[in-house]
Amino acid sequence: MMNPQTLLRSRNLKAKKQLGQNFLADPSTAAMIVERSRLNPEDSVLEIGAGMGSLTLPIADRVRRVFAVEKDRDLADLLKTQLLLEKRSHVQVIEGDILRIPLDDIFEQAASPLIVMGNLPYNISSQVLIRLIQSRKRIERAILMFQKELADRLMANAGSRDYGRITVILRYCADIRPLARVNANLFYPRPKVDSEVVEIVFKKQIEMPADDETMLVRVIRAAFGQRRKTLKNALSAGLPPISASETELILCQVGIDPVRRAETLSVPEFVALSNAITHH
Questions:
Q1: In terms of domains, do 145 and 261 share one?
Q2: End of a domain among 170, 202, 234?
Q3: What is the pLDDT of residues 92-149, one digit of tens each?
Q4: Sign of CA dihedral 255, 258, 259, 264
Q5: Would 207 be classed as within a structural domain?
Q6: pLDDT in tens, 231-240
Q7: SS3 at position 145
Q8: Is the distance from CB of 136 to CB of 202 less than 8 angstroms?
Q9: CATH number of the domain where residue 270 is located
């Protein structure tokens, strides 16, 4: 496929900043990502933000089926034309917003757990992750490219500055590992920071499951909502109608010092706390 800048100019198009568009412009990097993704001929892939197909085409060479989601109508049309020319009938381009399209339709067509891939725009990365977590029973794993700052947060350990709400929610139900660093100069337009490709493998069985996952997410959000406050104060402010004295009692019951802060709690500690609040 031709260079993204050349292709856009040939269609009198420009990258749309409001959609966070930064296109991978180096075919060898795309090939390397696909190689490290360990795809096999029986796999079905959901690609988020297919763009002009820099990842779509090398993915399509390896798998049984690709569902390529693209929000930008101009790019979706361009990709459909390219796929038609190359006779890639096993790739279906879905024009739409990944945060709004009904994923159940795709799951039913795939008939087996999906592998999700994509270069995610920074402004919707966390929202996309939450949506994938909610659908994780139908997803085997995800290979996603994030801005390095967010990738660092996802892989952070308890006690570090990068450790936060999305870290805990993801690590509760998935294992994550880095696959590749991608330099900013390999994109068009060039973003301000480098990117990191990570592999997220959803756990088939959670060792210490939450009794109520909705409550777990509420507890995590409340704890990090005012992360400079002690857990006692952050939770009593973010989880009405539980009072500060009740919060202190619950924290002590599960062996967590009420003056600790959210970023010091491990995932199992958050689960234990959530379970205690659920049954309070």
A1: no
A2: 202
A3: 999 999 999 999 999 999 988 999 999 998 889 999 999 999 999 999 999 999 999 9
A4: positive
A5: no
A6: 999 999 999 8
A7: strand
A8: yes
A9: 1.10.8.100
- Identify the three-state secondary structure at position 139: strand
**What is the DSSP track for 162-200?**
T--HHHHHHHHHEEEEEEEEE-GGGEESPPSS-EEEEEE
pLDDT class of 23 with cuts at 50, 70, 90:
confident
d(CA 146, CA 139) in angstroms, rounded, equals 19
pLDDT band at residue 15 using 50, 70 and 90 as cut-offs: low
- Count CA atoms closer than 13 A to 127's CA, side-chain side: 9
pTM: 0.93
Q: Are 95 and 161 contained in the same domain?
A: yes
- Which residue, 242, 269, 235, 245, is CA-closest to 255? 269
Determine the pLDDT at residue 16: 67
Same domain, 183 and 256: no
Region label for 196, one of left (φ > 0), alpha (ψ between -120 and 50) or beta (otherwise): beta
Contact 256, 231 (CB under 8 A): yes
**In this structure, are 78 and 116 located in the same domain?**
yes
- What domain range includes position 236? 213-278
In a domain, 180, yes or no: yes
Q: Which is more confident, 62 or 8?
A: 62
Of the three residues 202, 225, 249, the one that is the final residue of a domain is 202
Q: Which residue, 150, 117, 113, is CA-closest to 30? A: 117
